[in-house]
Design a protein that fits this description.
heterodimer; A: alpha+beta; 29 helices; 19 strands; globular; disordered N terminus; disordered C terminus; B: mainly alpha; 11 helices; 0% strand
């Protein structure tokens, strides 16, 4: 470092700007709190948490359960619907008749029904929707169940007729499922991102990674909903769900992903705990087609080796009913087969020996993300080990699970819950991933589908259960519980889940709602802020460049461009080899291979890689980052939404880091060599060793759970008010700032120590300046240069490296976007965002280098060195 | 300069750090012998027990002993981080040396490569890599190791370039030794100190990064315990079993702290010019 004092290194203008930024960030934090909203009892807004974000909002295109959770009955309606007790009741069809031979169904639709865009509903819309679902190449998950439909005809404006080739006993049930809702031909193409239905709620907005907002449809044809607004907030980690609930970030969970906390919540008078059942048969699924599991004795040995009650206790904390076959215990035709294979490791070992495996064998157990699967997996591995089966656990994301297990049947064992109701037909589907095939079973289902006599059907359903248990196709573990937890004053949500969906149409709040939080539309102000920041940086660069020779800048710019090009190639290659098939992920569980191929073609995934690379680069240059595979919206918009969180968070954390570092560093330097110096720097060393995500967990524990000063996680959006938004960013910013601030303090201290030993400081001291004056007026300006460099680097680190803290606090930032996109195999998003971040780092480095050159003009003359 | 007082204090800090480091390493070694295996067995009836004489750090939701898990986790943490440093040294040092000795286009290429990798958001890319290759300790080693390569390449290159101008190198050159021989016989031995310092620091960073990867589920896979995953699992249980959040976090922080103190002390030894 040169010893020359730098007069122009610290500009008053820059100081002013920094102060203004500081003020803008800090001042409104308290003043603009949540405005009190006196909503009447029938006019409240609630926020419900959900674990998985839907890939899109079109339930007729994919089997993603999360999609149906949001839109079923709330936004879209079918001809019929499933009531809470599982029965089929009228919906858009007010009545129907079935011919004696069971082949002709006539539906009369309600009159006066309008779609949310104002167009009236007619039988033509119903015909359009059903024809679309059953068309060849349709990606509707129920496509296969509609093959018996011969025709759908319109007999009058509100009269619909369905002709069948053979009787389908469950047709009315299928029509009540979320995949067969009625859309208008005018709007169905946009349903993935802007759904238009007939339901009591209309689509308001979807903040990717954060929340989906539905507003009441005041023109609803039936009884109006009582809630004014419902926000479905994505709480991706079960670890943050409790904190989110306690902190009031969400008003409830239809299905709370953390059973260990149910007991404590049940004792808490603020919450109602409502435990019901889903249609989810949770299985240790077995690849019946693969040795050694093609041997019935081995499969039965597995059934004997697994202790269901231990799993229900250990993984589910006692919630969940044991099952002995693939059938829900709450169904009238259920028979208890849990005693079919009693837990007995000795019997299991004997069966294995009989099958030729006296010493067991090694297998892999693939576990998808839901907590029940991961936790059950550990217990299952331990239990199988006692009978000699050595289990390797492999955690997989949903995309990989769909690709490896479901699609390619590349697995030995897996744990999964099958949540479709009465889906025992999957055991008769050719090519289904269980690899099970039994002609007798298929014949039984064939008879069942024709028979409409209730008594006979019930008997046959019993037969279905017995046959699956006898064949020990899978180890049947437990019926997945529905652990409803919500504010005690919230009513009308379902206890049971007989169909995939979270019906909020009859929900209401007792008290005048104080929870009218999170009301906002788009987060433009933040985008403007980000743009202003970038513009300021660019202007600063220009101002600096007056002192630097153009050739130097051109050279650096050239190498910058080269680095970016190289980076793009590296990223593309990296991302191209990601295993997993985005099309399969989007299509969901029950998609046909045909449909997946269709989608792949739609998204240009069938083009050679090099062509994809050039198309991508050309798009990036134009500013067009393409369309997200999973969300089906432009990536540029997604990135802008996330930057509106990440940029302010990075700035906030950096400001806090500087506020921490300067007092620390200056105090230590002022007392250089003393005990204070050593203590302060020792503290800084401790501070930088604390991982920021652990600090985040501790901050939540203290400030959100114990003291209720801050929200435990989530982001309300900038439209909720700057105070609320900054409040949500405060704990994450502290968690990020402490280690960075400690690093900065040490850099400042070291740099000051160096400057203090320089001759000019000694001269100043000799001329009679006090130690403090010498420090402030001579040492500090010189010591700032390395500090500013570190600040620049820290900004890019904070922008890109906040992923763990974002995870801890469920913030929809850029790091989470990449993480989610990676696990969803959304290649388009991953590659573009990573490139953007690399560009940000490179540009910041470039600016830092420029500022160096300005400070020390000799540098650019020997730039080749 | 009155350096004496803080120097002694630093040594006290060093002693503490060394003690902590030794405990962690010992724990890892003991867990290798299987002494903790009994504590790692599931025992659902004994789950979520608070710290006691039988279980110093309590038990987890599956009834495993948290102390045993932390010891086994130390093995994973140290193993992954050491592996990542080995990759960094193994690939980075030859790269840096060759670049410095050869100069020209090769040198420029190595410098560009360094810039490129440095420009990548490392933690994010490690997440991406680990997710791509499939989660697991071996892949975590690679994902973290890749980002150690330019660190050591840059260090070796810079160090070698200053050494190249020194008299003993000139003497060797006059004696007719080839470039690579000079690099091996004269440059590398003189860089050892610097490399050890950097390796210690990267080891500390690697342990923190490994914990981060396993926190998001991309590190060691269950049933092998790991500090990051323990912290993730602890998050739903903070109200019921706070020791699950405290114990692994403290183990992690103390280990990172110990290594970074050690690194700085080593720097004082090997690089006296960097002393205050």
């Amino acid at each position: 470092m040169t010893g020359r004092p730098v007069g122009r290194g610290w500009r008053p203008g820059a100081a002013l700007l920094a102060t203004a930024l500081l003020a803008a960030v800090l001042l409104p934090a308290r003043s603009a709190g949540a405005a009190p909203s006196a909503t009447s009892r029938n006019d409240a807004a609630i926020t419900l948490g959900m674990a998985l974000e839907p890939p899109n909002l079109d339930p007729t295109k994919s089997a993603a359960e999360a999609t149906e959770d949001v839109v079923y009955c709330n936004l879209f309606e079918g001809l019929t619907r499933i009531a809470e007790d599982g029965s089929v009741v009228p919906a858009l069809a007010r009545a129907w008749t079935i011919s004696a031979d069971g082949l002709t169904y006539r539906f009369q639709l309600h009159s006066g029904v309008r779609f949310h865009d104002g167009t009236p509903l007619t039988a033509l819309d119903a015909k359009y929707s059903l024809d679309r679902a059953r068309a060849a190449g349709s990606t509707n998950p129920l496509h296969d169940l509609l093959v018996a439909v011969k025709s759908v005809d319109v007999d009058g404006e509100l009269d619909l007729r369905i002709e069948l080739a053979r009787p389908v006993a469950d047709l009315l049930t299928y029509l009540g499922w979320g995949n067969l809702v009625i859309m208008s031909p005018l709007t169905s193409a946009r349903a993935a991102t802007a759904p238009v239905g007939t339901g009591p709620f209309r689509f308001k907005e979807w903040r990717k990674g954060d929340a989906i907002v539905l507003d009441r449809n005041d023109d609803y044809w039936g009884p109006r909903a009582r809630l004014r607004r419902v926000t479905f907030r994505i709480v991706p980690d079960s670890s943050t769900s409790l904190a989110a609930l306690r902190a009031g970030d969400v008003d409830g969970f239809e299905n709370f992903p953390s059973p260990e906390n149910i007991a404590a919540l049940a004792k808490d008078p603020r919450f109602a705990v409502v435990v019901g059942s889903t249609e989810g048969e949770t299985l240790l699924a077995i690849n019946n087609a693969r040795a050694p599991f093609n041997d019935l004795r081995v499969r039965r040995a597995l059934s004997h080796a697994i202790d269901r009650t231990a799993i229900i206790k250990g993984a589910m904390y006692g919630y969940g009913q044991p099952i002995g076959s693939h059938f829900p215990p709450h169904h009238p035709a259920y028979i208890d087969l849990t005693g079919r294979y009693p837990y007995d490791p000795a019997v299991a070992r004997a069966l294995l020996a009989e099958a030729g495996y006296p010493h067991g064998f090694a297998v892999t157990l693939k576990l998808p993300p839901p907590y029940y699967a991961r936790r059950s997996g550990e217990i299952i591995a331990a239990e199988l080990a006692t009978v000699g089966i050595r289990v390797t656990l492999q955690n997989v994301e949903w995309a990989q699970w769909l690709d490896q297990v479901f699609k390619n049947r590349d697995f030995d064992l897996t744990v999964v819950s099958h949540t479709e109701s009465l889906d025992y037909d999957i055991y008769a589907r050719p090519g289904y991933y269980f690899g099970y095939s039994n002609p007798a079973y298929s014949a039984l289902l064939e008879r069942l589908s024709r028979d409409r006599d209730p008594l006979e059907r019930r008997q046959m359903l019993g037969e279905v259960q017995r046959m699956l248990a006898d064949d020990a196709v899978n180890v049947f573990l437990f019926e997945l519980p529905k652990l409803g937890v919500w504010r005690a004053d919230l009513h009308g949500l379902w206890r049971e889940a007989p169909v995939q969906g979270m019906d909020v149409t009859r929900a209401w709040l007792d008290a005048p709602a104080a929870a009218g939080m999170h009301d906002r539309s788009r987060s433009l102000p933040a985008l403007l802020l980000a743009a202003a920041g970038l513009a300021a940086a660019a202007l600063g660069g220009l101002a600096l460049s007056r002192h630097v020779s153009p050739t130097y800048i051109a050279g650096r710019l050239g190498s910058l461009a080269l680095t970016l090009l190289l980076a793009s190639a590296v990223i593309f290659v990296l991302v191209e080899i990601l295993p997993g098939d985005p099309a399969a992920y989007m299509m969901g569980l029950n998609a046909s291979p045909d449909a997946v191929a269709h989608l792949r073609a739609d998204y240009g995934l069938d083009v050679p890689p090099l062509q994809q690379y050039w198309a991508w680069l050309a798009g990036v240059v134009r500013g067009d980052l393409g369309l997200s595979y999973t969300y089906r919206v432009p990536v540029a918009g997604l990135v802008a939404e996330r930057l509106a969180v990440s940029v302010p968070l990075a700035v906030y954390a950096l400001v806090l880091a500087v506020l921490l570092a300067f007092p620390l560093g200056l105090a230590a330097a002022a007392r250089a060599g003393t005990r204070t110096d050593a203590t302060l720097m020792g503290l800084a060393q401790v501070g930088l060793a604390v991982p920021n995500f652990w600090l985040g967990i501790l901050l939540i524990l203290l400030f959100a759970v114990q003291l209720h000063w801050f929200a435990a996680g989530g982001f309300p959006g900038w439209d909720a008010g700057i105070g609320a938004a900054l409040g949500a960013l405060t704990l994450p910013a502290i968690a990020l700032a402490v280690p960075q601030g400690c690093i900065l303090a040490r850099v400042l201290r070291a740099s000051l120590g160096e400057a203090l030993r320089e001759d000019y400081v000694r001269t100043a001291r000799a001329k009679g300046l006090s130690g403090g004056q010498a420090l402030w007026r001579h040492a500090l300006p010189n010591a700032l240069i390395p500090v500013l460099t570190v600040v620049g680097l820290q900004f890019s680190f904070l922008l890109a490296g906040a992923i763990l803290v974002e995870t801890v606090f469920s913030l929809p930032g850029i790091g989470r976007l990449i993480f989610q996109a990676t696990t969803q195999r959304d290649l388009i998003v991953v590659r573009s965002v990573v490139l953007l971040l690399v560009a940000a780092v490179v540009v910041v480095n470039f600016l830092v280098e420029l500022s160096y050159a300005v400070v020390d003009p000799r540098l650019h003359q020997r730039s080749g060195a | 300069m009155s350096e004496a007082a803080p120097r002694r204090r630093l040594d006290a800090g060093l002693a503490a750090a060394a003690a902590a480091g030794i405990i962690v390493v010992l724990a890892a070694l003991v867990s290798l012998t299987g002494a903790f295996d009994a504590g790692l067995a599931l025992n659902i009836d004994a789950r979520l027990a608070a710290p006691s004489a039988a279980h110093w750090f309590g038990t987890d939701p599956l009834g495993r002993d948290v102390l045993a898990m932390i010891a086994a986790g130390a093995r994973v943490s140290l193993g992954v981080s050491l592996g990542a440093v080995a990759i960094g040294v193994g690939a980075g040092v030859p790269l840096g040396l060759v670049a410095a000795v050869l100069g020209g286009v090769g040198d420029e290429a190595v410098a560009r490569f360094n810039d490129l990798v440095f420009a990548m958001p490392s933690l994010l890319l490690a997440v991406l890599l680990a997710a791509t290759m499939g989660p697991g300790p071996a892949n975590a080693v690679i994902a973290l190791g890749v980002f150690n390569v330019p660190v050591f390449a840059r260090l070796a290159r810079a160090g070698a370039r200053t050494l190249l101008a020194r008299d003993f190198v000139l003497a060797a050159r006059v004696a007719g030794k080839g470039r690579l021989r000079i690099a091996l016989e004269h440059l590398l031995p003189n860089l050892t100190g610097l490399l050890i310092v950097q390796a210690t620091i990267q080891l500390a960073l690697g342990i923190a990064a490994e914990a981060g990867l396993s926190y998001v589920g991309l590190g060691a896979q269950p049933p092998a315990p790991s500090w990051g995953r323990m912290l993730n699992d602890a998050q739903t249980l903070t109200a019921i079993a706070p020791w699950l959040a405290w114990c692994p976090g403290i183990a992690l922080s103390v280990t990172v702290l110990a290594l970074s103190v050690l690194g700085e002390r080593l720097r004082d030894v090997f690089d006296p010019r960097a002393r205050r």
